[in-house]
Input
Amino acid sequence: MLRDSLPNVTGPLPGAQSKLWLERCARALPHAILSDYPIVIKRGAGAMIEDMDGNRFLDFTGGTGVLNVGHCNRDVVRAIQEQSEQYLHSMMAVVTHPAYIRCIERMNEIVPVRGAEKQTMLVNSGAESIENAVKIAKAYTRRPNVIVFSGAYHGRTSLTMAMTAKKSYALGMGPFPDGVFRADFPNLYRKPAGMTDDDAILFYLHRLEELFLEGTPPESTAAIVVEPVQGEGGIVPAPLAWVKAVRALCDMHGILLVADEVQCGFARSGRMFVSDYWEEAGCAPDILACAKSFAGGLPLGAVTAGRHIMDAVPHGVIGGTFSGNAVACAAACQVIDLIQREKLTCRATELATMVHRGLAPLYESTQQVGDIRGCGSMIGVEFVTDRASKAPNPNLVNTIISIAVSKGLLLMRAGARGNVIRFLYPLTITDLQMEAGLSIFREAVAQAVGGEMQV
Ligand SMILES: Cc1ncc(COP(=O)(O)O)c(C=O)c1O
Output
């Protein structure tokens, strides 16, 4: 069965059938969206993908963090089938539909935002969830600006392109919406030389407060939007001490703290949301935006906040035709049930231990492995030319990825300079599959580093 199988690539990639599809794709699809991987999926199950030629790949990308419960999870597929036989669509602003209500009730139970009474609105994607979180924050505070961070990724709509740090995602797309100000994210691996972590946290807080003087005064700032663990930015967790201080700044100035959990949400961190750790530390966000793994592979996002905040939004300002699609809502309820029933938060922690144990020898033996970090099963390996200079090594990452793919392990890069490999494997991966994946990863790194030394 594909679900329990191990990686197996039988010939050069792409195989003959995949090649035909890739040629059709190159003709029909704008090159701006083309993949540089030689894989065309025929079917997926659990942590595995089978391509058009029968090659089997272990998917450490999980559809870029969408498949925490795995490809074609059986319970999710069943929920989709059952809902499809009832109704497919109803626009919530016209005909109220129960699948939406069931879904937001579950979210209001589990999302750790401030407020005794919580409310949730549904959208179709991560970018939309961020757009709406900002709209809600503006409506509540009646202020125009938001603060975002270096390394941030929030999406590719007009506003979220402005909020995203890496401008190669927005080439030629300006002018962008006004009112977006950027502070330095507390990336402790790349902190100023000679500083302790504690000093660096104070340094980054000071830089943030300077933005109040030189960018957006607090009384003009609606929200500070933080990825609790930066994904695209290179798997960089926000240190809890920094979050606490940012929370205190928000409280002092009446600014809302928004957690972008689009990539890190839904059990990957070892908790349902990273904001659960924040809540325990007394610094829960005011608004939480999520998407990706929410509906197990169907498009769905959500914004959750206290009712007092949601009440400030005028009727008609948020929502959309497809927002909260019935089938996606049914899938999402099943994903939440599954995470709880199968204790996938514990599994995320268990898998993270396996990964860190499996990668420790690599760190010992390989100068080019600069840092291994993350939160639960959201793990990044940063590659450098050497540990002293920490100079980013994106070429090595590209070589590792192509060697790994040729051996049946699908990996993905991250980081402003493309020098981080991120692990976002389905949390339903088996122990045997994880061992196989780590072993291919170690081989690919050794081979790529060996090749680099010969050049
Ligand atoms: C943290 C974060 N926010 C927002 C987005 C945008 O999500 P989407 O691609 O669904 O619009 C992403 C996507 O990678 C993300 O990682």
The chain has a mean pLDDT of 97. DSSP finds 14 helices and 17 strands in the chain.
